[in-house]
Amino acid sequence: MEWHQLKYFQTLARIQHYSKAAEQAAISQPALSRSIAKLEAELEVPLFERIGRNIKLTKYGEIFLHRVENALKEIEIGKQELQDFTDPEYGHLSIAFVQSDFVVGLIHSFQTEYPHIDYRLTQTGSNGIIRMLQSGEADIGFVSLIPIEDKLINVEPVYKEELFIVVSRNHALAKYDQLDLKSLKDEHFVTYKAGYGLRTLMDTFCEQAGFTPRVIFEGEELSSILACVSTGFGITLTPDLHSLDKTTFKLIKVIQPYCMRTIGIAWKENSYLSPAAKKFISFIPS
């Protein structure tokens, strides 16, 4: 059973006249007759019966037509979905990203300009983003620029932001505007779990300052980390984010070492990138 047989059958069932249906289908009448006969032979039932010079569907033909029309409709929908999927104006775009006002603002700007794209957005840690790129769950990722073992993941830096020590307004350190990181070696830190870019950076900066941070809480959500900071449970290292209520938190500049995070856009090398994904990459300011 072939696609054109079903289309010919649908056309003949609608017009109920061989010569007119053949003209509509742009084939000869004998070719149409052979196609229908072959279909009937395969199904082992008659689909049409003649009434004078016209034809009409048999009860078998009526049952089969219902299924054929549904099947052809589903195929047309599938073709349209594939067309939309590969259309940069109407495609699908899956983006995974670390917590960043820059990234959120960038996605919002792109979404405003291309509102018909179907977006799937996921916020998680850098290692989780790499896994999503490897599995194909995400088309594009925004990660903290940390060493990545998978050489098939291409990463290009797009943005740099300073990191600050964040404490509660009631914390003893809140009186300072700037500090050396080494002066915090006895403080309690609350931060992300291993695998998050900010955790890797914090550990690296503390090592540069000559100590291992005393981590007493590890979380996956910024909200839970900030909840610990707000109660004075510990301090953390993070960018200046819009979600940081400056009446509750104090941001302290780190003088030495200079704490900065580079965010990179990542995608899987040699894998298919949809037109929507390519358009998004080209949308990023250089």
Q: How would you describe what is shown here?
A:
With 286 residues, the protein is of the alpha/beta class. The chain folds into three domains: 3-85, Winged helix-like DNA-binding domain superfamily/Winged helix DNA-binding domain (Arc Repressor Mutant, subunit A); 92-158 and 263-283, 3-Layer(aba) Sandwich (D-Maltodextrin-Binding Protein, domain 2), CATH 3.40.190; 162-261, 3-Layer(aba) Sandwich (D-Maltodextrin-Binding Protein, domain 2). Helix content is 41%, strand content 26%. It has nine helices and twelve strands. The chain has helices at residues 3-15, 18-25, 29-43, 59-85, 101-113, 126-135, 197-208, 222-230, 275-283; strands at 48-51, 54-57, 92-97, 118-123, 140-144, 153-168, 178-179, 188-192, 214-219, 236-239, 249-254, 260-268. Strands 3, 4, 5, 6, 7, 10, 11 and 12 form an eight-stranded mixed β-sheet that branches. It has a two-stranded antiparallel sheet with strand order 1-2. Strand 3, helix 5 and strand 4 (118-123) form a beta-alpha-beta unit. Helix 1 packs across helix 2, helix 1 (3-15) crosses helix 3 and helix 1 (3-15) crosses helix 4 (59-85). The radius of gyration is 31 Å and the shape is rod-shaped. The model has no long low-confidence stretch (mean pLDDT 91).
